[in-house]
Structure formats: C-alpha cells, structure tokens
C-alpha cells in the first residue's frame, strides 16, 4: 500500500524532444522550446533532459528520424523517464508509431497545454470549453491506442475526461460534443444579454489581452482595488504560465466618473492550439466586443517583440485589429537603464509596473481618453408621444430639471451623445459639452453590478 502511494506521489520524469527545422526562425524556435520546458513543469512533471534534432522536414512516420528515435529510446531507458513530450502537435500516425517504439507515454505540446487548462479551469464555462477542446483533439487519435492506454494510471496528460473512458465508445464522444456545444451556446446567450445591456447603457468594455505571464491579472487586481465599484475580488496573479484561465470581468469607475467594464482574458502563447482558440470562442468574444483592447506586454522579457507578434496574430484571427489598442509595457521596474521598446501597431503606449502600482493612474487616464462616451447638456421640450425617449433619459442620463408643460415635457439634463442626437428636433437651445463629473451613476447602473460574466 505504501509503495502504491509513493508511486502516485512521485513526480513524473519527462524528456523533451525538439525538431529544429532549417527554414524556421531560430529565435522563435528557441523561445517556443523554452516555453515547452515551462509548460511541462507547470503541468507537474520534471524535465530530466532534452533531445533536439535538426532536419529539413519532420519524418513522415515518427516525426524524428530512425537514428534519433533509437537515441531517444536509449535516453528514456537510461533515465527511467515516464513520458516523452514533443515540441509540436503530432499527427495520429506519429503518436501510434512513437508509442510502439518507446517504453513510455508520448505527449505533444497541445496535450500539455490542454492538461494545464484542465487543471486550471474553475468555472462551469471554463470546464466545458476545456473538455470540448480535449474531445476534439482526442477523437481522431483513439484508434489503435489500446497498448498505450493500458499504461495510463493518472498523471500529466491524463486530466479531464480521460482517454480510457473515451476509447470505450466513440459514439459517446460524438454525443458529448453535441451536448457541450449546446451548453456553451447557452453561456454565449448569457454573455450576449450582458453585452446588450451594456450597449444600451453606453458602458464601454475594456479587454485585457497579452502573452501568458505578462502580468494581466496583477494589473487587473491593482485597477479593481483602486477603482472598482462592484466586487473587488480578483485572483492574485502569480508568476506561472496560464495562471488565469477563466475570464474575469469587473465594473470600474474611470477618471471622468463614468462606469466601464474591465475584462481579463486567457493569455496567449506560441503555437496556441487551434482547438483551444475555437473552444474558447465565447471567452475571446469579450475581446471581439471590446471598445478598447489593452495589450499588456512583459517589457522585461528578452523576446517581448516576438510575444507581441504572437498576440497580434491571434487578434488577427479574431478580426479585432480595427479597434483602438493601448499597449501597456509592464514590469518596467525589472528593466535596467532606459527602456526603448515601442509598439507601432498600437493607438497609444504607456509604461508601468502593475506590481508596484506605478503608471496605473496614467493608464486609466489614457483609457478614459480613448473610450470616454461624450455627454452633452441639453434643454429640450419633448412631445408627450415620445414618452419612451423621456424614459431613456431617466435611465441613462442625469436629470437637473423636469417640467410638464402644455406642449410636452421640458427637460434639462446631461445625456449620452446618442440620446442628444434623438433630441435634436426638440432642443430649445444648442446642446453644450458636459464637464467631467466626479461620480455619475444612473438608476439602472446602480442596479447593474457586473461582477463576473462567467457562470459559476
């Protein structure tokens, strides 16, 4: 019994395998391979060694050549490794052939990322998204894996729905995929209701995006602590990959007194699996619907420029590069001397330290400038037949005076520009620009406290 428990508690030993293709950028390859090291450790395994091969193209049968495969088998046996992790997404054929040739489990980069996501998902939506991605990944890879599955007894790469269960009934997987898609559609409808309400209220949405471990959660926490108007609970950011998986949204007051919704999203990474981008569509839609994207960059990372390209690549897939981007170069306190980084793709840039809190106020003011909803002071006499318009002014504006006259309702109020346009035919005098208020909350905004758009 003691031996079984000791076996379960033992940290698994992993060998990393990298294929350096001749046509690939050396910096990007090295960065991605170093990230694989961090991903495997994040998943809970110990990296005992690395095996790297230089080739023009991957081997069609085993990904690496036969000679390198013999070398890998010898390394695995000598170090008593529990698993071999490859630096790319392997085809079903590669997996089958490698598992027949090696005396341990074979995983690829995608499986490791999925495993971490399964470990980190806490909300119902997050768990649904992870399971959907895992099932889509595993379905074409089930055939002929009986021998390898007999070696599965828990550990890295086996979290989530579980491969042994999946192998028993392929039809079950298809039914489960349909059910997961249906449940996620319900979540999306839930999100859409919140978005529609926010649009009606002219509440801007600011989405935080960035490479994993860039400091988005730490920055979000600092902002909510200082400027949050609803729930101030935000998970504390930690120095580890994919620390934040489930999207968190919080209500924040901008410097001009208006309310905004800040949304923290999952971090990006080199070779982010397509199945994850697809499964997390509802989460990433927070970015697609945002009025402003805050791109958080780790200024202290030696390859921050490559990380920025990766983020913009995913944003391009989401078709959101047409909206304003504020790039926040974070961790500036860790950069020695004068830092000269720049982001030519952004609307504005700022330097800050989320951990120290330096530059956060400046960032909030820039956000205010970029998303501030223009409000106008109006004096109008609205016909009684336009009672719905008067009701909107009560909900979304700030009323200074109201008087029921013979020809209609006289109103002196501060309203969003959209309503001011509708009032144009009834204006008594020209509308004036409203001065920033210290704190303005409409009745409906007081009721609406968007603390977290994810379903618990």
Automatic annotation (TrEMBL):
Gene Ontology cellular component list: cytoplasm
Keywords: Cytoplasm, GTP-binding, Magnesium, Metal-binding, Nucleotide-binding
InterPro entries (alphabetical): G_HFLX_dom, GTP-bd, GTP-bd_M, GTPase_HflX, GTPase_HflX_N, GTPase_HflX_N_sf, P-loop_NTPase
Localization per Swiss-Prot or TrEMBL: Cytoplasm
Domain called Hflx-type G: residue spans: 204-375
Subunit structure: Monomer. Associates with the 50S ribosomal subunit.
Name of the protein described by the UniProt record: GTPase HflX
Originating organism: Tumebacillus avium
Name of the encoding gene: hflX
